[in-house]
Amino acid sequence: MVAMNAWLRDPNPASRLQARVGQGYLAWLRMRRNTLAMTGLVIVVALVGMAICAPLLAGYSPTAQDLSARLLPPFSAGHWLGTDDFGRDIWSRIVFGSRITLTIIALVAVTAPVIGLMVGTVAGYFGGWVDQVLMRVTDIFLAFPRLILALALVAVLGPGINNAVFAIALTAWPPYARVARAETLTVRASDYIAAVRLQGASALRIIWGHIIPMCLPSVIIRVTLDMAGVILIAAGLGFLGLGAQPPLPEWGLMISSGRRYLFEQWWVCTIPGLAIFIVSLGFNLLGDGLRDVLDPRSASR
Amino acid sequence: MTLLAVDDLHVTFDTEAGRVEAVRGVSFSLGRERLGIVGESGSGKTLTGRSILRLIRPPGHVRAKSITFDGTDLLRLSEREMRALRGQRIAMVMQDPKYSLNPVLRIGAQLTEGLRQRDRLSASDATTKAIAALEAVQIRDPARVMEAYPHELSGGMGQRVMIAMMLIPNPDLLIADEPTSALDVTVQAEVLTILDDLVRERGMGLIFISHDLRLVGRFCDRVLVMYKGRIVEELAAKDLMQARHPYTRGLLNCLPRIGGARGPLPGLDRTADWAQEGAL
Amino acid sequence: MTAALIEIDRLCVDFIANRRTVHAVRDVSLSVAARESYGLVGESGSGKSTILRAICGLAPVTSGTILIGGEALPVRRGRAFSARVQMVFQDPYASIHPRHTIDRTLSEPLAIHGLKGSDARVTQALADVGLPPSFRFRYPHQLSGGQRQRVAIARALMLEPEILLLDEPTSALDASVQAETLNLLSRLGEERGLTFLMVSHDLAVIDHMCDRVLLMQNGMAVEELTREALAEARMTTDYARTLFDASADRMLG
C-alpha cells in the first residue's frame, strides 16, 4: 500500500501512464476533501450499483402483479416501500427502474457531448464560414424546446424509450457545442498552439491532441450537471406517456400512474419522485465537485 | 517613529502535496521611510506584503508574534476593524492595472466610489477630489480620464490612476507590489518619480516589493533581500554595492550590462549552504 | 560578404482591431547573416514581436517580402519551413501544453515529421538543455518557469533548425534564471551554429546576446546599431538615446 502510494506520488514518473495516473490520484485527493462532492459521488455509485445488482436487490419482479396486495403502505410485511395500484412492489420497481434511468443517461452522455465537442471545436478552430454555418445549425437545434421535439418525434416514430432518448440527445448537444467553441476560441490564441502550428502540425492533430483536452473539463462538468436535467426530462416524457410505456418501471411513468392516488396513498408517486430528486441532486453535487478539481487549478501556475 | 513592526511572520499553505512554508520567520520594522523588499519568485515577498493587510485566505495561514501598525496589533483586530484600516490607513498598489482596475466601470466611478460610500461625500465633491488626485499624479487631462474605461488607458496611465486611487484617502502606509514591472522602461522612470514625490510630500511609509534589485536600490532608503521565505540581508540602499551575502552579490552580478563582457553571466550557486532549505 | 540568411524588405503588417486598421509594422527592412545574432528592441507596441510572427506565418503580411536563404516563403509555411525556422516564446507558462507530459511535448515535432528514434532524441534533448532525465514524464505545472523555458528551447531544437526566433525569451524569468537561460542559449547557439533573431525590451540583454540591434518604435525602424556603437553610446536618433538612458540609468555603479 505504501509502495503504491509512493508510486502514485512520485514527482518523477517513469512513463506516461504513471504520470497520468499520478495526476489522477492527486485530483482524487483534492476531491476527497469536498464532502458534498463525495456525497454526490456516493449517490451516483449507489445508482450504478443498484442497476447492476438489480436482480439481487429486488425482492420481486418489477412487473409481477398481486391484486390482493394493492396499495399497501410502506413498512408493510414483505414490501418495505409499499405496493402500487397493481400490487407491484415499489422497491423492486425503483431498483429495476434505475437500469432504465442509467441507460437513458449513458446513451445521452455518449452522444450529445461527443457531437457537441466535435462541432464546437471545429467551428472554433477554423472560424470564418465554417464557424458561421456550424453555429447557425447549432442555433437551430438550440431553438427547439425539448418536449415539443419529443412530441413531434413520438407522433412520427411512435412512443418508446429509444425515441425519447433520441429526442433528448438531439436537443442536448448544442450547449456542448457552444461551450466547446468558447473554450476553443480562448485556447486557439495561446502560444502552445502557435508553437505546434509552427512545427507543421495538421488541423486534425491540433484539434484532437491539443484543443480537445483543454475543452474536456468544461464538457465533463457540464455533462454531470446536465444529467440531472436529462433525468428530469426523461421523467417528464414518461409522465406524459411519451417515453417509457407501461408496464416498464421507469420512474417518471411511476409518478404519472400514481397521480390518482396522491392524497390517500401518497407513496405510490412520492417515492419515485424522491428517487429522481436524490439522483439529480447526486449528479449536481458531483458536477460541482468536479469543477473544483478539473478546472484550471491543475493547469495553471 | 516606528510605523510598522513585523515580528516573526510565518505564512504556510496546506496543499495535498503537504505543508508549504512560504514565509519563515520574517521580522522587520518601518518608519516613515521607503523600504524595499527584493526577491525572486518564491521568495515570499508578495505574501509578506499581503499578510500585513491580512489578505491571505485559507488554505494559507498567517502566524506571527505581532504585526504592529501605529501601536495596534493587526493580528488581533476583527475583520471589520481590518476593513476600516485597509484603504484608509494602509493602501496597496499592485502590478498590473489591467487586473486591478474594474474593467466595466469608468475611472471616475471607481475613484469616487470610496469617497461617496465611506466618506459620504456628495457626487460633485467626490468628483472634485478625484480630479485633484489625478492631477497629483500628473495626468494632464483629468476630465477625459474620468470618463474613460481602464482598457482605453495605456499601462503607465493606468498605473498612475491606481496610485491616485490608493492615495485619495491619504493613507499612512503604502505597499507597492511590483508597481512598475508591467510597464515599459521609459514609463517606469516617470511613474516611480511620481510615486517618490507623493510619498515624500505626504510623509508616508512605503514598502516597495520588487524582483529588481537595482531599481529598488535606486529608489528606496533601505533594502531587505529575501530568499525562500527568509530575509538574508538587510542594508541601506546606498550600501547596496558593498553587499556581503552571497545571494545579494549573486543577484547584483548576474544581470547583463550594456558594454559588458560577452562571456557567460555569473549565476547563483544553488548548491551553496545558504541556499539549502534548513539554512538561515 | 556572406549572403543573408534572413532578408526582410519593406515589411508591412496591418491588423484590423475594433474596425480600425492597426499598422503594427511599417516598412521595416533588415537582413541577418548566417550564424549571426540580431536583436530587435523596442517598447510595447513597437511591432518587434509582430515581425517574428510574420516570419512564422502567424501574422499576415500586408506587403513587403521575407526571404529565408534567398527563397520566398510559401503562404502556408509547411514542414520544410518548420525544419529550418523555430521559435521560443515569451511566456513559459503559456507556451507548453499544460496537459501534455514533457516527453510528449518534445516528441511531438518528431512525430509530426515522421522522424524515428524519439526515445533517444528526447533523452538527449533534455541533457542538452541541462534538465535531469527524471523530468521526462513530468507535467509543466511541476516545473519552474526557468525549467519550462528550457523545455521550450529543447522543443525548438528538436527539428535541428538553422534559425531560432526568440520572442522575449527571458522577460518572464527571475534575474538569476535569466542569466542561466541566456548562457544556455549562447552555448547552444555556438555549438549548433544557429542564427538568432531575438526580440526584447531590455537593451542590456540584447547587447549581451546580439551582434547588431535594430531599435523600433510604433512599428517603424528607428536606428540600427552594432554592439560596439551601442556600448559607446554612439546613437544618432533621440529615441535611441532615450531608450539607452532609461536602461543604463537603472544600473548602479
Q: How would you sum up this structure, described in words?
A:
The complex is a heterotrimer of chains A (301), B (280) and C (253). Mean pLDDT of chain A is 87; it is low at 297-301. Chain A is an all-alpha fold and 301 residues long. Chain A is built from twelve helices and no strands. Chain B is α/β, with parallel strands linked by helices. Chain B has ten helices and eleven strands. Chain B has helices at residues 45-52, 79-85, 97-100, 107-117, 123-136, 142-147, 155-167, 185-202, 213-219, 246-253, and strands at 4-15, 18-30, 34-38, 60-63, 66-69, 72-73, 90-93, 173-177, 205-210, 222-227, 230-236. In chain B, the strands form two sheets. In chain B, strands 7-8-9-3-10-11 form a six-stranded mixed sheet, with helices on both faces. The mean pLDDT of chain B is 87. The model of chain C has no long low-confidence stretch (mean pLDDT 89). Chain C has helices at residues 48-56, 78-82, 102-112, 118-128, 145-157, 175-192, 203-209, 227-231, 238-249; strands spanning 4-17, 20-33, 37-42, 63-68, 71-72, 85-88, 163-167, 195-200, 212-217, 220-226. Chain C starts with a strand and ends with a helix. Chain C is built from nine helices and ten strands. With 253 residues, chain C is α/β, with parallel strands linked by helices. In chain C, helix 3 (102-112) crosses helix 4. Chain C is globular. Classes of the chains: A mainly alpha (301), B alpha/beta (280), C alpha/beta (253). Chains in contact: A-B, A-C, B-C. Chains B and C meet through helix 8, helix 9 and helix 10 of B and helix 6, helix 7 and helix 9 of C.
